Write the C-alpha cells for this entry.
Amino acid sequence: MNFDPAKMALEMIENREFNGHAGRLGVRFHAMGENWLELALPYSEDLIGDEESGVIASGPIIAMMDVATSIAVWQRIGGFAPHATLDLRIDYLRPARPGHTVIGRAECLRVARSISFTRGIAHDGDIDDPIAHVAATFMVPSGTYPRIGK
Amino acid sequence: MKLPPYAALLEATLERAEDGTPVMVMPFHPGVLGRPGFLQGGAISGLLEVAAIASLRHALESEGGGRIKPINVTVDFMRGGRDRETRAAGQITRLGNRVANVVAFAWQDDRDRPIAAARMNYLIERD
C-alpha cells in the first residue's frame, strides 16, 4: 500500500501555502494504527465558543472530525478518492476542558460502491472519557470508489 | 449580541432580518477553505452552529436569558460551498424549559437553495 494517511494529513492541513480551514484551526496529524488515525486540535483562545467558561466551540471539533473521518476512508481503500461529506452527526458527551488539546480518532466502517461509513471519537487525553462521538458518511460525486487495497 | 472568538475566526458577522432575527454572514476567505475553491464542511458546520446559538440567544432574551449547551448536531451537506459569501440562520422548532430543538440553514445566492442544513438539540439552563 502506497497510501500514507500521515502524509495525506500533512498535505491537507499542515501545508502553509494551502493554509485552509483545518490549518487555520491549527489541526495536526497525531497518530495512526492499521485501521484508525488521529488528528489533534491544540487549544487556542480563537476557538472559544463560550467566553464565560473558555470552552471551545463545537465547530472546530466537527471540522477536525470531518477531516479525520475523510482520511480514514482513504486509509481503508489505500488511496485518495475525491468525495464529499454527505452528513455528519456529533453527540457532545461533555465539554472539552479549556487548555487541553482535543484528539480526534477516526475509523472507516465500510466503503460501499459510492458511499462510505465512518465513526470517530474526540477526547482530550483519555479515550475512555470521550468528549464527543461522531458518525459521518461520504459520497463520491460521480462513479464509485476505486478498489485499490482491500 | 456579543459573538464568541470562534465567530471572529470564521470572520462571521451578525445581520438582522426584517423581523429582527439574527442572520450570520461569512465572507469567503483562506481560513474557511477546504478543497480549492470550496468551503470546508467544518467551516459551514461552525457557521450553522453560531447561527443556531444566535437564534437561541435572541429567543431567550425575552425569557430572562439562560446558558446554552450543545447536546448534538446533525449536519447534511447538500451542495458544495463556493467561493462567495455565505449566510446562515437558525429556526427554533421548540424552545422548552430545558431543551431547545433548532434547525439551521446555510445558503449562498438563493435562500431556497441551501448548501447545508443542521438539526441541533441544546440543553438550556435558565437563570
